[in-house]
Amino acid sequence: MQQKVAVLGPGSWGSALSQVLAENGHEVHLWGNNPAQIEEIQSAHTNKHYLKDVVLPQSIQATLDLKEAVKDADAVLFVVPTNAMRAVARQFNEVCENKPTIIQASKGLELGTHKRLSQVLGEEISPEHRKAVVVLSGPSHAEEVVRHDLTTITAASTDLKAAEYVQHLFMNHYFRVYTNDDVIGVETGAALKNIIALGAGAIHGLGYGDNAKAAIMTRGLAEITRLGVAMGANPMTFIGLSGVGDLIVTATSKFSRNWRAGNQIGQGKPIQEVLDNMGMVVEGVSTTKAAYELSQQMHVDMPITKAIYEVLYDGMPVKEAAEKIMLRDPKTEVEYN
Fold first, then answer.
1. Do 276 and 222 belong to one domain?
2. Are 110 and 85 in contact (CB under 8 A)?
3. What does the pLDDT look like over 45-76, one tens digit per residue?
4. What is the rounded distance in angstroms from the CA atom of residue 317 to the CA atom of residue 104?
5. In terms of CB atoms within 10 Å, which of 50, 116, 191, 301 comes out highest?
6. Looking at the whole model, is its pTM more than 0.85?
């Protein structure tokens, strides 16, 4: 059955998900606040800054009018940067006149509050303007989704029927969606893997090989799990799509902006210069700060996150940070610390 879906955020992932929905026969309204970008999508059906050489379905309606985009929508998909999530949620709450299912597809933790993004949406969107909140996440590069590469992700909600609704919205022959009730685990894994991807890129930039890559990913997953479980997540979630799956795809690929940023930092480029030249938000940078502060607050040991924080915010050389981790006191692996 055709549904009206408003997609808030015309970046690479928002555009890719809009394409999936449109190809599934849904009415898609893609909202953004950049006039030139919206005009390009609406008239040329391209979004070249984010998805080069991709032609989007002509049925996607791009608009600058948030009220029009969400009017009578059955579902509203939030795909905006972490630092904009609260503001956009407030705007949505002001103009919404019905009660759609809310889908959260961004990956990060809010600076200052350290909150997961579904929590931010729950705080800013009043109950009369939302049904359940569903988190859509997993190992997925927008650049591959738009060319119909096989992709599997997760729809997570404490409301199973809502998760199944989102599952059916998106599923097709190249895009498979599983359901999960562990919202904390899915969002935590999605956010924290960006930190490890920065580190993996930095290790590559230093010239280290596969041994180091395996080490940072494996030990990174251990500390992601440790913090997630402390927050109330199911540990099994972290060996699934939103844990090890998302970590693999983000910490090993040229498509990952976090990996690319880390790689340049490892090569010695100034951090601010790297971020200025990326052209897209590198979520792992702000998430590193939020996760480090949260780990200190919750007394959870996260040595890799701490080392990356010291590189990004204290100016520690990457090589020194890597050696500092290697020379920590001996541990047993099963303690996951």
1. yes
2. yes
3. 999 999 999 999 999 999 999 999 999 999 99
4. 36
5. 191
6. yes
A 10 A CB-CB count for 319 gives 16
Catalytic residue from among 115, 193, 289, 306: 193
Residue-by-residue DSSP string for 219-278: HHHHHHHHHHHHHT--GGGGGSIIIIIHHHHHHS-TT-HHHHHHHHHHTT--HHHHHHHH
CA separation (Å) from 154 to 57, 64, 84, 186? 24, 29, 23, 8
Q: Give 189-246 pLDDT, tens digit per residue.
A: 999 999 999 999 999 999 999 999 999 999 999 999 999 999 999 999 999 999 999 9
CATH at 140: 3.40.50.720
Same domain, 155 and 234: no
DSSP state of 37: H
Task: For the chain, list the strands marked E by DSSP.
Answer: 4-8, 27-31, 61-63, 75-78, 101-104, 133-137, 151-156, 175-180
- Structural domain harbouring 286: 185-335
Sign of the alpha-carbon torsion through 166, 186, 81, 148: negative
Taking only the tens place, the pLDDT of each residue in 246-274 is: 999 999 998 899 999 999 999 999 999 99
